[in-house]
Design goal:
By secondary structure, the protein is an alpha+beta fold. Helix content is 29%, strand content 34%. The chain is built from five helices and eight strands, in the order βββαββββαβααα. The strands form two sheets. It has a four-stranded antiparallel sheet with strand order 1-2-3-4. The chain has a four-stranded mixed sheet with strand order 5-6-8-7. Helix 2 links the parallel strand 7 and strand 8. Helix 2 packs parallel to helix 3. The radius of gyration is 18 Å and the shape is elongated.
Amino acid sequence: MARRNNRVKTTTDIELKDRLVAINRVTKVTKGGRTFTFAAIVVVGNENGIIGYGLGKANEVQAAIAKGVEAAKKNLVQIPVHRGTIPHEQEAKFGGSRVILKPASHGTGVKAGGAMRAVLESVGITDVLAKSKGSSNPHNLVKATIEALCEMRSPAQIAGNRGISVEQVFKG
């Protein structure tokens, strides 16, 4: 999947907010009748560059959400957010879903739909243009969006690689 060199080591003293992206009711037909279970995909983030996602499955909705939140807290990554937007344009693909993220000027807002919006708002991005192509499956959209965010390079990394200052990166 995505590069995981930006994993968050410790989750203590991080105030995480969780968002429910999708709930799926699964029906299993047995000899005794139908059995319903629920699968919930949840995104957690501190709205300041840290994000994680998780999938929880249980016989009740609340238990599935709780399991999803716990799984998401074990899967946190650090994302470079620059002045409320992303540092550069990025594309990613997961399964049948493709996402395209573009930086936007201040005041534009989060121009994204559904699952992508939940991920981008949880990470703390306030201005971005986003487009999803292919499958609209929320599981794959969340994973593709987080993969695109994990591939982002911060302005400091770009400046260091080029041997110039951060201000010069944004001039040219």
